User: Fold this.
Amino acid sequence: MQDIKNRDDIYRLVRTFYGKVQQDELLGPVFNKVIVDWEEHYTRLTDFWQTNLFFEKKYHGDPMQRHIEADQANNDVINEMHFGVWLNLWYQTLDELFEGEVTQIAKNRARNMGTFIHLKLFEARMQRNSKS
Assistant:
């Protein structure tokens, strides 16, 4: 196996991973409810990971706001189980396809992002509830 080296590798990772997400009994309903165009999503997430792994400015967007909107669209059901399953599938997919330094960085960044997004989702809920 080789390490993640380029955009094609990232696209393969993203497509394989989100194929699993779509089929997962916990994550599938959440993602499938908010993602209308999976091909666009693969491209957007490839841009995101290319930016995060290779510092090539490809991604333009607000991932935090997207996650808050996804949580709201799913009646605030996203919880620590969703993040745990997401991270486990991410690690599993990485381990199936790649090995090396960039692969490990992808694991570490996903874990850190998952923790941050999880906390920010609950913060957003608290802010919405305090305005009610």
In short: The CA atoms of residues 71 and 78 lie 6 Å apart. The helical segments are 7-23, 27-34, 38-54, 63-73, 80-97, 101-131.
